[in-house]
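Quick one:
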Amino acid sequence: MDKENKVGGANEEISFDSDAEDLLRDLESDEDDSEYSGGDASTGGEVTATQSLANMIASSVNLESLTSGSYRAAESAVDAQEASDLAQEEDDATADTLPMPGREVEMANRGQETSKKPEEEGAKSEGSRSESSSKSEEVEASSERAVHDSDSEEVEKSGPRQSLKRPPIPPKMPAGVRVLREGETAYTQEAINDMLPGGKNDDGRDLNYKFTDNSWYAQIFNEDYLRTVPKSSPRQTRREAKFIVDRMGIERGARVLDLCCGFGRHTIELAAQGFDMVGLDLSMVMLKRALSDAQERGQAIKFVHGDMRKLSFNSIFDAIYNVQTSFGYFDDQSNFKVLQGMFRALKQGGVLMLETINRDFLINDLPLRLWWKGKECTLLEEIDMEPLSGLLKVQRSFVFDDSSRAPWEQKIQIRLYTATEMRALLTRAGFDIVELSGDYSLPGAYFGASSPRNIFVAERPRR
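Output:
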């Protein structure tokens, strides 16, 4: 049989590429061998029908249409089950269990064909091809009419002027984006970083452990306090001043702030060495004493009456130091704001020295009672520490030599920090830690609980 006639008999509009033509030639060569299977009529074996060439071509057409994205149903009236192989697996399973009259008829017809004479078989074969071709054309025409009818119904429903294409689906809103409601504020990541611990707008809100502030620091530093201060030798003052200059690495002519300068012992010494000194303290009594001593030496030192929590300086100092247990007078948040004020007051690359009592060193001797003799008075200090707040609590009792003055008491509370806590606060305020010393006699060395002091040297970064 001619290949073109065979193709035209199955579907006139079907075209094949070279691979399909090779497949067709293989099918032609096997046609006579595969038409019957499963037995012989003379031996009583059952005759089993095989898929006709037209059906196999139709199945390959359907497969080609599926891969190209333009599937159109094409079934053969000779073998409906083979066309349904392209349906879903569950439909195939259901179809296998149902009776198939078309296949029974085909099997019966083919059984009759085997009993006919060879000369009649040719005529019957030609008639089958014509019938198969006409039925295929009818199936294709019916499929085209069904598609046309469905398109017409869709046009009638949507209207003559509307496109058959569906409108585009709007994109979804990206994750993390929300619509702001009235009164809400949107923060950029940069602003959030500034508010996080260590950011430039960090106000220490999470440092919210509060305790009663009895403003002892505003009352204690008076004339009576000066009676209790141990007398310092000029040699000791010079040694401590040298420690400050060496560890901070400052040179003569640098502008230096002595924060909580008291009566100006270190301020006056450093001014004598050629530094541009500024002293700030809350106690007017202490400032008057410092100014008087500076004038006696012929020094012009700027002494400022102010609160360390309210520093208004902005990048004007080369160095700041706060020594002799002058830090920790307030709660954690206020102490942190003091550090922020120091940071702002320093120039970029400016240096800070901060001295505190080493809590680990002191706690081994608590509670503690100390007696000593002051100027025209005797003093008793009772010292203990509150573990939850980290407050060092001191009660001072004065007994004056002048019997005309009644004894009186002072209550002091100082927040003590471990070296780890102090390092965290300084870093959070923006400083870079340079050095930690445990005492003036051992610069650059720290021995943990054996060191009586925590003396930090920190730097404002050069940005």
